[in-house]
């Protein structure tokens, strides 16, 4: 038990601080659990331990540590979440959500109230049936465009978008991976304790409670939340103004005596020891974008460049460049190469392979023939020395490139292009098919004809068989970091149960709340889980807290199902930090938020939900 608690402490610290991605931490936890028993046998043999440590194995039942240690990979919850990513991608590829978004935009126009109401009212029901992280990723460009077209700050809409997706995730079993994982753990514990009223969740078992909380949450966001949500980003049409690039963008002309005349751009830039990006080349009446590397520099060439004023002076003196006076390099100037969009915001997506990489190590410019002008992380904007900043999920890049380059970025699963650009590859003819497949999965699981894992896998295969998805897109659709996170933390929950750690925590909770009524203990468990989830992963919170909730219910003689439901809902609603839930982190950069904004808007909402969820569970399910 001491070893397991020490491992949990280390894992919590690493989840909170993220020295490595949380999925790597989870796999590290799994490996530690697999190693401890064989290593402790060796330690006992040489006299260091009195007895070997038994953490996962059950010798009496013939269950090995390896069997339980890697059980997360074969767990029905893990496979179901994987299949739901594929189903969500099948719906996304049809373009139905973008089509619906355009129709909504035509209605909301320039009314912030209508924009906010449409955002919440649209994302909540969608998130009940496709993964809510995927829903936010799909709707992010639509909501940002909605804000710009209506002259509203995107900050006023993006945080509500994230919160509303969490509301929707509580409507059905498949709304979020947290629900699926909690359902599997509840089903396993129900078999372990057959006298309890505990079972896996059905598809719509808690929908009525989810609807109540969605209404409560919507009312909050439309009133108090709207007042508390800051307008961090000004509702400017010009992206260069939004990123405050005025002091960092300018144009220079190449003098006849410049040492770079006659050299290629790549050759000249390769010898620069300055923080400078050449954005575009203007020669006579032509404007050239990346790739510029092979262009031979001529006297009289005009370059639009990104640098700071001090560096500009050094570059001008060393390389024979003259500053062009009275030139404003704004979005219109950067899009002068043609009449199509050249300047966009790009967000690093959840599960992106280049998280932890830099623009330099990922060879961003070479790969996409595009230039990053600025990087925004929450309220901080990097406008120089960006090439060596490790990228994180939610980082927003201001990118300039040709329309073809932007299309490549839009097709790359590592990024989400903020703002609608031309997307001709939607499979609109497959809309009825994709919706029919999702409806069949939900229906078959709801009536109990098929287990949810079987229905979801069959639905995923149907997406490919009907042409809604191409085979390679199946693997691109899965957020593998989430899958490995689940596989890694599931054995930790088993270890807590096996060693008695869950029972000890439950004893402490019951002892601390001895004089409280059962419904208050239920609320306390919700609050503890919610606070934990705001610091670490929601899935890790469920794995740690569901066994505790069951043990507390047993000791109080209360409803185990109600206590598990409180933990599940608390883990699905992390409003107070950007790291508590993936959708919060996803809107952190595009909204220009500060860490304190989540506490300012989310803490009152968390308190409202603590009361509403506790009373709702007591009313609908009893305690």
TrEMBL record:
The topology of this chain with respect to the membrane is: Multi-pass membrane protein
Sorted keywords for this record are:
Membrane, Repeat, Transmembrane, Transmembrane helix, Transport
User: What sequence ranges are listed for the domain RCK C-terminal?
Assistant: 236-321, 329-415
Instruction: Output the SUPFAM superfamilies linked to this UniProt entry.
Output: TrkA C-terminal domain-like (SSF116726)
Identify this protein by name.
SLC13 family permease
Matches recorded under Pfam families:
CitMHS (PF03600), TrkA_C (PF02080)
Q: Which GO terms describe its cellular component?
A: plasma membrane
What's the chief localization of this chain?
membrane
Gene Ontology annotations of biological process type: potassium ion transport
Give the stretches traversing the membrane.
26-50, 116-143, 163-182, 433-457, 477-496, 508-529, 601-621
Could you give a GO molecular-function term held by this entry? monoatomic cation transmembrane transporter activity
InterPro entries this protein is in? Cit_transptr-like_dom, DASS-Related_Transporters, RCK_C, RCK_C_sf
Its subcellular locations are: Membrane
Known PROSITE patterns for this protein?
A: RCK_C
């Amino acid at each position: 038990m001491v070893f397991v608690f020490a491992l949990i402490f280390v894992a919590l610290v690493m989840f909170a601080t993220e020295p490595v991605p949380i999925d790597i931490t989870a796999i590290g936890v799994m490996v530690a659990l697999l190693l401890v028993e064989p290593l402790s046998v060796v330690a006992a043999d040489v006299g260091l331990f009195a007895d070997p440590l038994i953490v996962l194995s059950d010798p009496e039942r013939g269950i090995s540590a390896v069997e339980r240690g890697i059980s997360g990979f074969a767990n029905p919850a893990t496979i179901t979440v994987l299949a739901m990513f594929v189903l969500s991608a099948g719906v996304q590829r049809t373009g139905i959500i973008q089509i619906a978004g355009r129709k909504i935009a035509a209605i909301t126009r320039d009314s912030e109230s209508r924009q906010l109401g449409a955002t919440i009212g649209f994302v909540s029901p969608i998130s009940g049936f496709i993964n809510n992280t995927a829903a936010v990723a799909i709707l992010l460009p639509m909501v940002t465009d909605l804000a710009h077209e209506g002259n509203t700050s995107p900050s006023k809409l993006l945080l509500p978008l994230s919160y509303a997706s969490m509301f929707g995730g509580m409507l059905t079993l498949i709304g979020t991976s947290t629900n699926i994982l909690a359902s599997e753990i509840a089903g396993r514990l129900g078999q372990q304790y057959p006298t309890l009223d505990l079972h896996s969740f059905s598809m719509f078992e808690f929908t009525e409670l989810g609807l109540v909380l969605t209404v409560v949450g919507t009312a909050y966001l439309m009133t108090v939340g709207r007042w508390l949500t800051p307008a961090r980003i000004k509702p400017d049409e010009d992206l260069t103004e939004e990123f405050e690039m005025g002091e960092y963008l300018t144009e220079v002309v190449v003098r006849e005596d410049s040492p770079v005349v006659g050299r290629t751009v790549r050759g000249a830039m390769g010898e620069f020891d300055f923080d400078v990006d050449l954005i575009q080349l203007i020669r006579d009446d032509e404007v050239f974008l990346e790739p510029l590397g092979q262009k031979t520099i001529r006297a009289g060439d005009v370059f639009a460049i990104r640098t700071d004023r001090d560096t500009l002076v050094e570059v001008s003196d060393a390389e024979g460049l003259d500053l062009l006076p009275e030139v404003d390099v704004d979005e219109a100037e950067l899009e002068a190469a043609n009449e199509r969009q050249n300047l966009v915001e790009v967000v690093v997506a959840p599960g992106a392979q280049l998280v932890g990489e830099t623009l330099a190590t990922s060879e961003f410019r070479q790969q996409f023939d595009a230039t990053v002008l600025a990087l925004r992380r929450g309220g901080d904007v990097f406008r120089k020395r960006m090439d060596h900043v490790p990228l994180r999920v939610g980082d927003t890049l201001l990118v300039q490139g040709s329309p073809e380059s932007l299309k490549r970025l839009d097709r790359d699963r590592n990024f989400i292009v903020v703002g609608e650009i031309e997307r001709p590859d939607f499979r609109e003819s497959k809309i009825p098919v994709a919706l029919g497949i999702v409806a069949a999965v939900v229906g078959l699981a709801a009536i109990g004809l098929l287990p949810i894992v079987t229905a979801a896998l069959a639905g995923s295969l149907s997406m490919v068989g009907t042409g809604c998805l191409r085979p390679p897109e199946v693997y691109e659709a899965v957020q593998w970091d989430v899958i490995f996170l689940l596989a890694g933390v599931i054995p930790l929950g088993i270890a807590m149960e096996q060693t008695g750690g869950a029972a000890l925590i439950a004893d402490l909770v019951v002892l601390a709340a001895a004089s409280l009524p059962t419904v208050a203990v239920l609320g306390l468990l919700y609050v503890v889980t919610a606070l934990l989830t705001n610091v670490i992963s929601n899935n890790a919170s469920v794995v740690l807290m569901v066994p505790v909730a069951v043990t507390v219910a047993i000791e109080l003689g209360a409803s185990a199902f109600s206590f598990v439901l409180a933990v599940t809902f608390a883990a699905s609603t992390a409003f107070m930090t950007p790291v508590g839930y993936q959708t919060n982190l996803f809107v952190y950069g595009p909204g220009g938020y500060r860490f304190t904004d989540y506490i300012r808007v989310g803490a009152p909402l968390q308190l409202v939900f603590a009361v509403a969820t506790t009373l709702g569970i007591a009313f609908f399910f009893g305690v």
